[in-house]
Amino acid sequence: MILHLNMRLMPTDRENLFEGPLGEALRACGIGEVDGGETLCSPEGMPLSCDVDLVVDPEKEAELVAFLVRLDGIAVGSYLEVGSEQVPLGTLEGLCLALDGVGLPDEVYEQADLNALVDELDDRLGDAGFYASYYIGPKYTNLYFYGDSYEEMEEAVRAYARTCPQCAQCIIGQV
Question: What CATH number is given to the structural domain containing 135?
């Protein structure tokens, strides 16, 4: 079985957010185990979606489906591949904050602290969403957040972006 995640996660983030915790939960429930995963990336290396490979006791497939349907933390558009069937999963919406990596004054980059920015945005999002992953490309650094409402996340991120030199010329969009 394959759990397809409609989420932009770097391999380490996929492992930390899904493979590890899901594997532990499946083993604890006696349903099965995680057997690896992969991240589909653009030619430039930007994450587009992820798969988590699952080995499940055939008699426990219904339990797995019920478990995953109830699981928080999965984006809309995700699904569980059961044979030739796709069981839709997920309720979260995604937001990408693309930071300009080449067009800002040098002093902004010299003083930039990406980890501090992520922490600040995570705090400002509160219960509206959470930071999940990143991508550092040739022109932009993308930060990916997921939550129940894109609009709520966008409002919080945009309000902070107006005050942050590191966010000047940023692009905020739904993923």
Answer: 3.30.70.590
